[in-house]
Amino acid sequence: MSSSAPTTPAPTQSRLQRSWDATVRYLLRSRLHRIFSGKLLIITVVGRKTGREYANPVGYASSEGDLLVGTAAGWRRNLRDGEPVRVTLRGKEIRADWEVITDEEPIVELYRIILEQNPVHGRFAGISLDADGGVNRAELRAALARGTAVVRLHPRDASR
89: part of which helix (H) or strand (E)? Predict the structure, then answer.
């Protein structure tokens, strides 16, 4: 007779993640946004099939006026060519043009910037910096194979 362990942690994790995301969204939109605004923003996309808005709290890094978001999440498939996205950054809503980058060579430098500014992101992405400060290429390739990309946001509002 064999016994198997219950396989229901995914819904619990999903509920936990949804609760956490809701709390972070609330804080990022409130006067208390400064607690998280240095590392997190909200990117709002519209579902291609549903037309429903999805507000996603994501980690980011700044680079030369742009915002870099490393992600393997599915929300980026709802980005529409030629349409800016809404971003809540430091308590203010702005519009940003975007590009999704999936090629290894440009991502190496972008991920170095992301990991230097937001090291916690590396634990989620499974990507780290080597002792010399460069991105671990093997980990990066594995993450790219899992669907990781960098979304570069170009804010339209220069007064960020």
Answer: strand 85-89
* pLDDT on residue 39: 78
Report the candidate in 46, 90, 78 with the shortest Cα–Cα distance to residue 151. Answer: 78
Question: How far is residue 23's CA from residue 35's CA, in Å, rounded to a whole number?
Answer: 12
**For residue range 14-33, what is the model confidence (pLDDT) as tens digits?**
776 666 666 666 565 666 56
Cα gap 158→145, rounded to integer Å: 35
Mean pLDDT of 117-138: 93
Tokens 């960020």 — which residue?
A: 160
Amino acid letter at 77? R
Helix (H) or strand (E) holding 96: strand 92-101
Query: 119-136 burial string, b = 16+ CB within 10 Å, else e?
Result: eebbeebebebeeeeebb
Q: What is the CA radius of gyration of the chain?
A: 17
For residue 134, what is the DSSP state? S
pTM: 0.79
Q: Please give the C-alpha separations between residue 98 and each of 69, 119, 150, in angstroms, as whole numbers.
A: 10, 23, 10
